Amino acid sequence: MLSNRYDQAFAYAHELHRKQTRKGTSIPYISHLLAVSGLVIEHGGSEDQAIAGLLHDAVEDQGGIPTLMEIRRRFGDGVAGVVADCTDAWTEDKSVWRPRKEAYLAKLPAKPDASLLVSLADKTHNAEAIRFDFEALGEALWARFNGGADGTRWYYSSLSKIFATVFPGRLADRFSYAVDGFATAVPTLLR
Q1: pTM metric for this prediction
Q2: Of 118, 123, 126, 112, which Cα lies nearest the Cα of 50?
Q3: Half-sphere exposure (Cβ direction) of 115: Cα atoms closer than 13 Å
Q4: Which DSSP helix (H) or strand (E) runs through 115?
């Protein structure tokens, strides 16, 4: 069962991300945070991990280190540690995409399982959204992403290999399935 801490984390996440939408859409960003948290819960995560699922993008998108300190104050070291492990940019300026992603990939295998589950849930929801949108939009989809088609495919394929090795299981399989749908595929509308 989830406690009032989860409710408070949801309210805080919604407050932080209220004006944000998913890349290239009008979908409120909170939908992604709820989906990530839901995947964490479905795959055996603790309440701390479920809360980290709600807050995993807060540092990167909503204030950097001061936001992490506030998360630590409100929800404790466990949640803050997972959020920090899921963060690949500590400022809102994300101009150095490839080196940032390479650094995240290099550190990922050493992360604790608590962090790996939240990261995998995040990446799974993102990959499923990419796959769905790729099927609908085709190559036009890649304009949404800093890494473009090649970089995004490289990054998600790399993540898939790492997760299959360091955190195998149903969620890693689900992630790989989603990635396979856009990493080498031709979109449906082009077939």
Answers
A1: 0.94
A2: 118
A3: 18
A4: helix 113-137
Percent of the chain as helix, strand, coil, to the nearest 5: 75, 0, 25
**What span, in angstroms and rounded, lies between the C-alpha atoms of 44 and 39?**
9
DSSP per-residue string spanning 47-106: HHHHHHHHHTTHHHHTTSHHHHHHHHHHH-HHHHHHHHHH-S-SSS----HHHHHHHHHH
For 15-18, which contacts have Cβ atoms below 8 Å and span 24 or more sequence positions? 16/55, 16/58, 16/61, 16/62, 16/63, 16/67, 17/57, 17/58, 17/61, 17/62
Distances (CA, A) of 156 to 65, 104, 120, 149: 26, 12, 11, 11
pLDDT of 5-19, one tens digit each?
A: 999 999 999 999 999
- Res 81: pLDDT: 98
Task: Specify the residue for token string 């929800």.
Answer: 75
Give the domains, in start order, of the chain with CATH numbers: 4-190 (1.10.3210.10)
CA nearest neighbour of 83 among 109, 106, 100, 65: 65
How far apart are alpha carbons 124 and 130 in whole angstroms?
Answer: 10
Residue 190 pLDDT exceeds 80? no
Question: Length of the chain, please?
Answer: 191
